[in-house]
Amino acid sequence: MKNKTRMMNWLAGSLLLGAGLNTASAAELPKLVPASPAALQRWQDMRFGMFIHWGPVSITGHEIGWSRGAQTPIAVYDNLYKQFNPTNFNAAEWVQTARDAGFKYMVLTTKHHDGFCLWDTKQTDYNIMNSPFGRDVVKELADACKQAGMAFGTYHSVCDWHHPDFPLGSPGGSVPKPHPNMDRYTEYLRAQVTELIKNYGPLLYMWFDVPQQTGPDRGIPTANLVRSLQPDILINNRVGGTPADFDTPEQTVGGFNMDRPWETCMTICQQWSWKPNDNLKSLSQCLRTLIQTAGGNGNLLFNVGPMPDGRIEPRQVQRLKEMGAWLKNYGVTIYGTRGGPFKPGKWGASTRIGNRIFLHVFQWEKGNQDALELPAIAARVRSARRLDHKAPIQESLRQADTPLPLLQSVETDFQQNEEGLTVRMPPAFQDPIDTIVMLELDRPAIQLAPAKVGSSTSSLSSGAKAKASNVYQNMSEYDAGKAVDGETETRWATDGGTHEAWLELDLGKNVTFTRMAIREWAEGGNRIQRFNLQFKEGGEWKTIFAGTTMGPDFTKRFEAVTARVVRLNVLEATDGPTIDEWEILK
Ligand code: FHN
What we know:
Elements (H helix, E strand, L loop, with lengths): L1 H16 L19 H10 L1 E5 L21 H4 L13 H11 L3 E7 L25 H12 L2 E7 L10 E2 L5 E2 L5 H19 L4 E5 L6 H14 L4 E2 L27 E5 L15 H13 L3 E6 L9 H17 L7 E2 L8 E6 L2 E6 L9 E5 L5 E7 L21 E3 L2 E3 L3 E5 L10 E7 L23 E4 L23 E2 L7 E20 L7 E10 L2 E8 L6 E20 L4 E8 L1
Parallel strand pairs: 1-2, 1-9, 2-3, 3-6, 6-7, 8-9
Antiparallel strand pairs: 4-5, 10-11, 11-12, 12-18, 13-17, 14-15, 14-18, 16-17, 19-21, 20-25, 21-24, 21-25, 22-23, 22-24
Helix pairs in contact: 4-5, 4-9, 6-7
Bound molecules: ligand FHN.
The site of ligand FHN has 9 residues, from α1.
């Protein structure tokens, strides 16, 4: 757990505050060469990529990089490669697994924080060619991807806890090296990045990671070197000191954003690298993550950790095959689409392409005749049809403007007026994971402004005056009001290491309510261990409910309460409590 917390704190810190180790003033900083818009568009159309975390560490079953000097002593960890001989590794099989899953690109860890290199690098002997396996894994996978028409990208860790010149060492970058030389290390890093692009490219992108000790004065020149070697390559926001081309929310679905590309990276289990009997996500979790990501206008980089013998665990292969079967029928609602116009939420998500909106409905309003109420849009809906791969094929529905497969669909009950749109779905046709309704419009769907769906407008706490005992770095992006702004992609956050805190809402007047729904920030894990909910009456605090863990989907119904001021008291938390959204409902 410690490693994971350290990993998350690194992520929260460096992505939020930038690596900030800049020695040059803004005026002297080099300018980042911008990305190719066409390359960005091509990558966004792909929507779904396979992340692969692999290396000799898989022998131990512990986390790559982070277990060095933690669960596994450094001397043992650094010699694992001498017994690494994954004779069942077959790049073509990995690529076939990716194709069967519906992935459109693959990304392999070429070097993680442990410094071990999975290719025939001339910069260090600490590489796969000096293992019993003795084969260039990066080359074999890159070639197999090319052969199959699968895009290939490389993950490359900026930090290197093994390399003597990198200032920080294991565990987790927490121990300073005796004789660091960051200039020499940066040259080493750039020499390896050059090898990867020149010898294994063209690459879809360089996915840099954990840019410890690397501010814009180093990060931007490295990014520009990458761009000079392959002008249409993409670069993520972790090269150091620059947001570069796209954001990388981790282990959570990123916020709806039509302006800046982003890609959620997430594990299919819990650990990034191989872990025996790890918790495998359900098909519903996997598909809904993909749908919510595409609905937010993002890509999903979904991770597997192959076993020490070179195979991907059969359980994971099976889960990926199930995703692929769904995408075979409904990939038309994901690939090539853009997010929205209806923003993702508990209700589901929406994607759009041409004059079509695809509603991905996770929950219908039982108390409202199994309807879905949507806000008004500036377009006329010509038809609503439920996609059903078992329905008869209608040649007429072939998409003339894009080479999309036939859409097998069934007419669906909907009403539209100036208030909004209501779609009804009999329970018999409600899919337990995702019911897809295609709306045909009288204009291009991309023209429509994004719109929020559902309960946030009905929450009595929407826009309430909020205050809290603590706000992360006193940053307005994380202040108390972010817990009641109706946006699940913003949140109230507190400083790391905060174990108690309160969040107080002034609802503006006495209101009567019977329900609360609180979303604890999913990426942070269940930090809240004990809490209570109170309201103020006659100057005294009265407790409505006292609980233990909260999680991302906490709801509680209780006897009607009438009050103006309410408070969430976090009495015990493993780390800084943070709330996406707090709804108070009649
Ligand atoms: O520390 C790494 C972690 O091992 C993994 O590679 C993830 C993938 O995005 N990146 C870092 C944690 O943010």
